[in-house]
Amino acid sequence: MVRGKIEIKKIENVTSRQVTFSKRRSGLFKKAHELSVLCDAQVAAIVFSQNGRLYEFSSSEMEKTIERYGDFSNEYFVLGRPQVQPYLEELKKEMDIMVKKIDLLEVQQRKLMGQGLGSCSVAELQEIDIQIEKSLRIVRSRKAELYADQLGKLKEMEIKVLDERRRLREKEIRERLLRPLLPVTLHTEKGEPEGGYRTKHSSEVETDLFIGL
């Protein structure tokens, strides 16, 4: 049978929790031993149970492993802490540069909106004028593109409407031509009835017209 996945959360049942702790602890120490043997690594594991009991494994003497860990920590963490300060200062400089750039962009935006122009020189005003003209050309070009697209869509709709009207008119004409003629009795000058046909609209009107061979 395939083992199902176990949800990683605290086991509420005390007995099941103790059994799982014992099994997992043994498996952890077994894996640590295999790692130390296969890779010739110095491995140490320290585990405290919920009741405060100590369980440990070390591929060599635990004291030497802890001492080596302390030396490593002092060398790379305690002595390395001053190296963090230059990094933070560099980040602060970059942040100051970004803030200044944002301020300049805000000032430039206000000038383009016609605000704060009192301190601008003639050259700055000319440059602002050129930028505004470029922006206007871009906006007008985009506006013309949108108008052209809308005009094209309207023309397509007009063509469809005209086609539909033409189709309906042709359909109406065909229906009129194919409309059946009703037989009627026509009267001659002497009042004698003769065979003939008339349409529905002329069913109540006498006529001398004779339709036939």
From TrEMBL:
Entry's localization field: Nucleus
Write the protein's name.
MADS-box protein
What UniProt keywords apply to this chain's record, in alphabetical order? DNA-binding, Nucleus, Transcription, Transcription regulation
Gene field: A10p014370.1_BraROA
Query: Which PANTHER family does the record associate with it?
Result: SERUM RESPONSE FACTOR HOMOLOG
- Location of the MADS-box domain: 1-61
K-box domain ranges (all copies):
88-179
Going by the entry's taxonomy, the superkingdom of the source organism is recorded as Eukaryota
State the InterPro entries in the record. Answer: MADS-box/MEF2_TF (IPR050142), MEF2-like_N (IPR033896), TF_Kbox (IPR002487), TF_MADSbox (IPR002100), TF_MADSbox_sf (IPR036879)
